[in-house]
UniProtKB/TrEMBL annotation:
Keyword line: Oxidation, Oxidoreductase
Assigned protein family: Belongs to the aldehyde dehydrogenase family.
Domain Aldehyde dehydrogenase: 27-485
InterPro entries associated with the record: Ald_DH/histidinol_DH, Ald_DH_C, Ald_DH_CS_CYS, Ald_DH_CS_GLU, Ald_DH_N, Aldehyde_DH_dom
Coiled coil region boundaries: none
Organism: Azorhizobium oxalatiphilum
PANTHER family, per database record: ALDEHYDE DEHYDROGENASE-RELATED
Statement: the UniProt record of this protein carries the keyword Oxidoreductase: yes
GO MF, one annotated term: oxidoreductase activity, acting on the aldehyde or oxo group of donors, NAD or NADP as acceptor
Residues the record marks as active site: 258
This protein's name: Aldehyde dehydrogenase
Alphabetized CDD domains for the sequence: ALDH_DhaS
């Protein structure tokens, strides 16, 4: 492990292939920046197609003939659990790396680094619960059974907002099923991915099972297009997901896609306003709005609209921006200069489209970090249906508040988006809560809570928010293929010109 990272330190990482560091064959590199300081932070391998080929070949060899292929599912699962223990032991360091890379609060990054142990324990425990079936055929002389077998090399591409957490969400079921993986992290957050792979080796997972290639878009494209990649798991924007689905379709391989969101957070007049206020704030300003499930559209019933909006504006104005390593900081910077510019331009476009500003709306100055990528917590109202901020994912701390009168009106508005990742409903009326849950077009619906997730509860999107699911028993099934085995027990000679049925 490297020495602890300070805000101003600069480090160098190579790829991690076959259980060891592997510099780019072309010696190409790129530089990442610390979003808190705005300064260069680390240098990483900018991988070419040859680097990707080396990683995929390593993973393919480990899958077909290495120690991983010879392990029983039980032993494979135990190694995943040990990996979880290792990550938890190093959670402080991983969290420090994450915060330096993406500017999210150290406390949240530490929590995520700790809880991935639960994911690895859960899927490690599922590794030896994969079972085939015996088929009761009409032909009693035939013994027919099925096997559930791993696919091979799985390509995993993750974004920068929760790199360790999202990586393990994808890697755990793929590995539990017996596959091997090549992980391509975001160029913003490459360091922690390599540290995870190093810890896998320390846990006893054989070399070649977990490989990491860093780089830019061309690196990801080379990985998606590699002929030995049998499955793709991608978390990111819908445009990237469409491109990956198209590339995967050309090779007839499948993909799990967790894409963007424009999630509604709906507050009815009978809701507990204290809890609803906290839920709306958490839904959009936690992690500076840089989550796929960000509750970026708050629909508030008219009898409580003015009162709740006034409270939200007051809380937004009081959010403490600053050093994400400090416990008192409530919101750090956004992760990149490009994201900062996007936040600013989308708010300006929303105002041009007729919205009015209640809070924030511009870059924020933090005295200790004059070059940091800080954006003020922003609230917009008088947002009409055609406004860009209601249709497109900002991925920043920008909230649109919209009044509504009744269930039918808010359902129509909430579902009027190409996305369908998540939704929140705040009400004391149980009938209403469950009716809303059924009628909202979203893969996850939270009732009187928001931004909750568990290793054993499926997570995935509807509509343009993705394909497939992470978490839960069904997740491991996505990394298996079925084989049907037929065994004739009779000694009779069959007519060779008649199909056996």
């Amino acid at each position: 492990m490297n020495a602890p990272i300070t805000a101003e330190a600069q480090i160098t990482y190579s790829n991690f292939i076959g259980g060891r560091d592997a510099p780019s064959v072309d010696s190409r590199t790129f530089v990442s920046h610390n979003p808190t300081t705005g300064k260069p932070w680390g240098t990483f391998a900018d991988s070419s197609a040859r680097d990707v080929d080396a990683a995929v070949t390593s993973a393919d060899d480990a899958f077909r003939s290495g120690p991983w292929a010879a392990l029983s599912p039980t032993r494979r699962g135990r190694l995943l659990m040990k990996w979880g223990d290792k990550i938890s032991e190093h959670a402080e360091r991983i969290a420090t790396l994450e915060t330096a890379q993406n500017g999210k609060l150290f406390s949240e990054m530490r929590t995520q680094a700790n809880i991935v142990q639960d994911w690895l324990y859960y899927f490690g425990g599922l590794a030896d619960k994969v079972e085939g079936t015996v088929i009761p055929l009409d032909r009693t002389s035939v013994f027919n059974y099925t096997l559930r077998e791993p696919l091979g090399v799985v390509a995993v591409i993750v974004p920068w907002n929760s790199p360790t957490f999202l990586s393990i969400m994808a890697l755990a079921p793929a590995l539990a099923a017996g596959n091997t993986v090549v992980l391509k992290p975001s160029e913003v957050t490459s360091a922690s991915a390599i540290e995870l792979a190093r810890l896998a080796i320390e846990a006893g997972i054989p070399p070649g099972v977990v490989n990491v290639v860093t780089g830019l878009r061309t690196t990801g494209e080379a990985l998606v297009d590699h002929p030995k990649v049998a499955k793709i798991n991608f978390t990111g924007g819908d445009a990237g997901g469409r491109a990956i689905a198209q590339a995967a379709g050309k090779r007839l391989v499948s993909a799990v896609l967790e894409l963007g969101g424009k999630s509604p957070n709906i507050v009815f007049a009978d809701a507990d306003l204290d809890r609803a206020e906290a839920g709306v704030l958490a839904g959009i300003f936690a992690a500076a709005g840089q989550t796929c499930v960000a509750g970026s559209r708050a629909y508030i019933q008219r009898p409580v609209y003015d009162r709740l909006v006034e409270r939200l504006v007051a809380r937004a104005a009081g959010i403490k921006l600053g050093d994400p390593m400090k416990a008192e900081t409530q919101m750090g910077p956004v992760a990149t200069a490009a994201q900062l510019a996007k936040d600013e331009s989308m708010v300006q476009q929303a105002l041009t489209d007729g919205a009015e500003l209640l809070a924030g709306g511009s870059r924020a100055r933090v005295e200790a970090f004059p070059d940091g990528y800080f954006f003020s917590p922003t609230i917009l109202h008088n947002v009409q249906p055609g406004n860009c901020v209601l249709k497109h994912e900002v991925f920043g701390p920008v909230l649109a508040v919209i009044p509504f009168d009744d269930e039918e009106e808010v359902l129509k508005a909430a579902n009027d988006t190409p996305f369908g990742l998540a939704a929140g409903v705040w009400t004391r009326d149980l009938r209403r809560a469950h009716v809303m849950a059924r009628r909202l077009q979203a893969g996850t619906v939270w009732l009187n809570t928001y931004r909750a997730m568990a290793f054993n509860s499926p997570f995935g999107g509807h509509k343009d928010s993705g394909l497939g699911h992470q978490n839960g028993i069904s997740a491991i099934q996505q990394y298996l293929q079925t084989k049907s085995v037929w065994c004739e027990l009779s000694e009779d000679i069959q007519d060779p010109f008649v199909i056996k049925a």
